[in-house]
Design brief:
By secondary structure, the protein is mostly beta strands. The protein has one helix at 37-42, and strands at residues 3-5, 18-25, 28-34, 57-63, 68-71, 94-97. The chain has one domain (3-97).
C-alpha cells in the first residue's frame, strides 16, 4: 500500500504534489511522483483532461536482491516541453549497487 508524503519538508507549503512510497516486493520499495492538478493544467502536454490519465512517474527504487538504489532523473517543470519525461537526453537511470 502506498504512503503519501506532502508538506513543507518535501515540496513546500503551497504545493499539492505528492510522493508515494510503494512496497513492490518484500525487499523492494518504489518512490513515485504525482504532480498536482495545477501543474498538469499548466503543462501544454497535460493540459487536456484526456492527457492526464496516468501521470505518476517513478523517481526511485530501493532494495531488491542486488541491494540497489536506482534514481530516475525526471523533468518536473510544468512549463518545460519534456515535463514528466527523463531529465537528461542520454541518461534514463542511475544505478548504485550494494553488497
Amino acid at each position: 500500500m502506498a504512503r503519501r508524503f506532502v508538506g513543507s519538508r518535501v515540496f513546500g507549503e503551497s504545493s499539492e504534489d505528492q510522493l508515494l512510497i510503494e512496497d513492490v516486493a518484500p525487499d523492494l520499495v518504489r518512490v513515485v511522483y504525482q504532480p498536482s492538478q495545477s501543474k498538469l493544467e499548466e503543462s501544454e502536454n497535460f493540459s487536456s483532461r484526456k492527457a492526464r490519465g496516468n501521470t505518476k512517474r517513478t523517481l526511485l527504487e530501493i532494495g531488491g536482491p542486488s541491494q540497489h538504489f536506482c534514481i530516475y532523473p525526471l523533468n518536473t517543470l510544468p512549463t518545460h516541453e519534456d515535463f514528466l519525461q527523463p531529465k537528461y537526453e542520454r541518461v534514463e537511470s542511475i544505478i548504485l549497487e550494494g553488497k
